[in-house]
Amino acid sequence: MSENGDNGTVDIGGSSDQLKEDKKSSNLSVVNRDSQIKNLGEKLLDQEAQVKDKSAEYKELIKKNEATSDSWIEAKRHARQIELYKDSVIENLQLQIKDLEANIVQEDKDAGSDDEISATAASVATQTTPSNHPLSRPPWL
């Protein structure tokens, strides 16, 4: 019932045109919210794909760094082997020189002849390390 009771209807506070407008704007706001949610969902999926791409990229970089690190460690180990081989060759040569000097001094005392000393020195100078000796070739060959 209306306040004035002319037609026997109850006035609920709005015209039918106003209700249609409210419903239309409500539908538009729902559509807007749905499209915003859809857009945010798409952005989220895009960001997730970017994160996956970056993650794969970083994993690849880590693998390369590990390979580089392993190569560097291998190179350092190889260099150390070369140093050890060089040191052992030098030490071996120094021992041979000391032995030769001792032999020359002993032979000089025994013989007292310059010809024998030069012959001994010449024979020692032509001696080589046997091919099956560990110092005859580097360990990495």
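That was protein one. Protein two is written in the same sequence-then-structure order:
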Amino acid sequence: MSITVIKYDVRHDILESWLWREFGSQVTTDGSQVWSATPIAAGHSSWWSVTAPRELTKDETHELRLKSLPPKRVPFGAKKGTEMVNIDSEDAVKDHLENVRAISGRITDDDEKNISRPIARYYLLEPGYAWSELPISYKGALDLLSTFRVFPELYTYLSAFGRKGFPQDESFAGFDCTETIDEDGALETLESCYLLKYVGLREDASKGTNPWSIRHALIYQKVDFGTWETNHILVRIPETMESRLGESILKDANVASDFVREWTQLHSLSFGSVGDNLRQFINYLDEEVTGIFERMALAGVEPEILNQYDTPHSSATDMKTIHYLDDQAQRISSLINLNIETIGCLLRQARKLKSRGHSSDHGMITQFEDQMQKIKQDHKFSLLNVSAIIKRAHTVSEQLRDIISLRNSEINKKQTEMATGHTKAIFTLSRMSSQEAHVVKTLTGLALIFVPASFVAVNSPTLTWDKRL
């Protein structure tokens, strides 16, 4: 049996239905349990721990998530005029575009008068998981983009999505805007496209690892000021933005109409959805740096009183962690700066439109400028917080390096003292050995003198005189 943790808001009935279809009955005839789904009490009532004969794949968990989402597609009609389409397959693109073309072909002049303006379409594309492929093929994307005659700059931004071995386009950003003017010199259409940088919770984060990841979303908008039709392509937008967008356009017709007519609200909504998770990520980095600092404060340098935080493994782990946190903070700093630059581009475009637009648009654009200035200011404050964390990380890294160096110095000093003591002992032993050798040499010399003499004295023949001679 395998356990799969589903960190998505998945409805219980949809999960049970899928498990029944995939693995059969929950309990066999002999009473053995085949599968079970237990809710996880982590502030998410719809997160599950699933025990089954095999582990669920990421594509399967993502499918369960999509099926659990509330209906986002509002029928495109004359009354409401807005729709939010979640494009999760190639067939979804084909069916929707056929529906749009069929409706456009059936609309007569009388129907045109009865259609409530403005009309808005929101196309949401999201990869199956993380940096996987988009749910539509290249041909499907071309069909969608050509239907609404988007400008070619969009293709550059779409290339920032897809399967990647590492976040190679994390520092890629940009802003493109194109205007068309009618014969009277009035603004006819306005197209804009940019990448929104944000942070989101990792779906596969395990305990003890960084739960946050840096991401980007594609925001494309085309506004037709003559017909008040707007088309939007939104790729991998933040969950906060997705829910707020749904609340704005899926309400009653008057609320949706106001939101669509004030087309600038989409941009303030997109950048306004970044702050909450960004703050949580910064708090996470701050907490991790503080944890290393507190462990460092308990560290010792005397070899006789070292503790668990003074082992080479602990010190190496802390050093690697502080460098990782510093890298994350540097990347967050780059993210914020890129967003600030993009906001600046939007504000410059707004001032340009305000200078030549109708007086009726001045109030809307002025309100948009105020909102974006506030969001820009919040980004700058976040940048100051990140800069403080980077400085703290550098300081803690230097202090940790100094403590390790001092500890190594003390250990080397202790080893040197021990080596010196050993050398002195060896010298003393050598001197004593030399003295003993001198004694042995003396004894040997004496032995060479007296032992042969005594031998001669004892064993030599004695001569006697014969008195008869």
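The radius of gyration is 40 Å. Keep this in mind for the problem set.
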